[in-house]
Structures are given as C-alpha cells and as structure tokens.
Amino acid sequence: MSNISFTAMPTADAEALWNGDADSYGHLPETMISDGPGHPCRHCLANIDAGEPLLVFAYRPFPDLQPYAETGPIFLHKTPCQRYAAEEIMPPVIAGGKDFIVRGYSDNNRIVYGTGAVTPTADIPAYAEELLNREGIAYVHVRSARNNCYQCRIDKA
C-alpha cells in the first residue's frame, strides 16, 4: 500500500468555475478547444481529448494570498467531470508526462527551500514520500518542469 495520495483540485473549486465564477485573478475562465494532449484537466487528472471544449483560467491552490502563493494557468474540462479518485495511483496526466518539478510546502503554505527538484516521472512517488517524511513538510506539489503549471498535490496517505 502506498504511503502517499495524489490529490486533484477540490470539486468545490471546479464547480464554482463550471457555474460561472471568476478565477483567482477575478476574471471569467476562457473557453478553448483542445488540440490534443497537453491540456490536462486538474479535476479528473486526465488529458482533455482533441476537439473537447475546456476552460483555461488562473488558479491559486493555496488558501490565502501570501508571497509563496503561486498562481498560474491551468485547464479544466468545460463539462463537469468526476474528480480523480484513485489517489494511491499516479494520475494519467503525471504518468503520461516526462518530468515535473516536485516541491515541498510547510503547514503555513510556504515553499520549503531546498526541496524543489526536476523529477523524472517514475521517481515522483519515491521523492514525494521522502519529502513528506521530512520534518516541516506538510504537502507536496507536482508542477510542470517546462511551464511551472500546477498539476496536483501529494499528501501522506
């Protein structure tokens, strides 16, 4: 059994956007049509297929504004989808990728310096577990190594 869990964007956040709420910058999400892989939905953690409509918007996966509360563009299926539930298994958007930045955060939502590393996909579970076993690390983010976009969160199982 895995000691970590991959956590998707909360359903409440996705539902707010599906229902017409503004993003983290106070703007309405933009609608695009996916041209294929490269548009990972942060709610179901699967790629949005070519031809499907999607929302692109600014997302801040932190509870409060503060200097380390990174905000950036992410994608969401335009039509509601089921939240990723197989938390002990690496999600499709991660498993199908090349490399990611894996970084630890403290319980006050600050980056723990020295934890961020470009990590090959196969090494993500082991590195995340190593980080989560360190004192002072409450959770881990997986971000794109190329664009720094938020992918998902990893917590202790």
UniProtKB/TrEMBL annotation:
InterPro entries: DUF1203 (IPR009593). It comes from the Bacteria. Pfam families: DUF1203. This is DUF1203 domain-containing protein. It comes from Rhizobium tubonense.
